[in-house]
Design brief:
18% strand; 10 strands; Beta-lactam/transpept-like; Beta-lactam_cat; 5-stranded antiparallel sheet; Beta-lactamase class A; alpha+beta; Beta-lactamase; 8 helices; beta-lactamase activity
Length: 301
């Protein structure tokens, strides 16, 4: 497994408590999203966020980006990175067919559980994980590759606060990991920027991850502000291209991604943790994340 050439976040400054802006941008470029997240925090929502300019690595804004947050499905990006790296090896069978088994079944996100095909190639399973956070496909891949291998891949990438912790489960008991995955927004922003630049593991592996993540159909959070077609945005429209990964679980909404536009590009990560006891709180969280997306769109377009 390849080792990283530099530490995560080396190109960016330490986290700040207030928004920072480009000198040629209006002073309030990121003010709306920053205020929205701050309002959530004042109302009991734990918030962590970061955005950087993709070309320079310069911090655009951050809120407690060093905190380890539950990130739900975002952690599967580490599984995708490991699969992509293995496909660099000519000895690894890219068309290896994997069977789903009873132990892999989980009645949650994903399409494969609703399909008749009992077996799929490993690359197709990665595409399902990226496109629909397919938990069945994820569990089958993890049974083949191993959770320890994914953890080692994260370590080789230089990630210390970001990890895929467990299989997908219908219910988490006291002996299970409390979350599917955790991460820091600083590390996730760095990782997604590395994917975009072709500098995570190898250019070919990075591009595979980008290609898979560009299939993601969940544009309900930060990316809801970008005006893209959730089912067909891979080629981009109006000068915008996006790849992203979202995470949703009870009391968790998170997203990491890279948005490019005519003026510039950004890598971003936002995570929220809250008491999900009423619909109004959940809607407020979604609205706050969309406000961040509106600011990012203004920056790149």
């Amino acid at each position: 497994m390849a080792s990283p050439t530099r530490e995560p976040g080396r190109r960016v400054r330490p986290s700040a408590r207030r928004a920072r802006h480009r000198s040629d941008e209006p002073a309030d470029t990121f003010a709306s999203g920053f205020r929205s997240l701050a309002l959530l925090a004042r109302n009991g929502v734990q918030v962590s966020a970061r955005a950087i300019d993709l070309a320079s690595g310069r911090e655009l804004f951050s809120i407690d980006d060093y905190i380890v947050m539950p990130t739900a499905g975002i952690g599967t990006s580490l599984l995708l990175a490991d699969v992509a790296a293995r496909l660099d090896d000519p000895a690894f069978e890219s068309l290896m067919i994997l069977d789903r088994e009873t132990q892999d079944q989980v009645g949650d996100a994903g399409l494969w559980q609703h399909l008749q095909a009992p077996s799929l190639p490993i690359a197709d399973l990665a595409a399902l994980v990226a496109a629909s956070n397919d938990h069945l496909a994820m569990n089958v891949l993890l049974r083949q590759i191993g959770l320890d291998a994914v953890r080692l891949r994260a370590e080789h990438l230089g990630l210390r606060r970001t990890a895929l912790l467990d299989l997908a489960r219908d219910h988490r008991g006291p002996d299970d990991a409390p979350h599917l995955s955790v991460g820091s927004m600083k590390e996730l922003t760095w990782l997604f920027a590395e994917f975009a630049r072709g500098e995570a593991i190898s250019p070919a592996a990075s591009q595979r991850v980008v290609d898979w993540l560009s299939l993601n159909m969940d544009l309900s959070l930060v990316a809801s502000a970008f005006g893209l077609d959730p089912l067909a945005h891979r080629s981009g429209t109006h000068g915008l291209t996006l790849f992203n990964k979202t995470g949703s679980a009870p009391g968790v909404r998170a997203e990491a991604g890279v948005l490019r536009g005519p003026r510039s590009g950004v890598a971003y990560a936002v995570a929220t943790s809250f008491t999900d006891t009423d619909l109004l709180t959940r809607l407020a969280v979604v609205d706050g994340m969309r406000a961040v997306g509106s600011d990012l769109l203004e920056y790149v377009h």
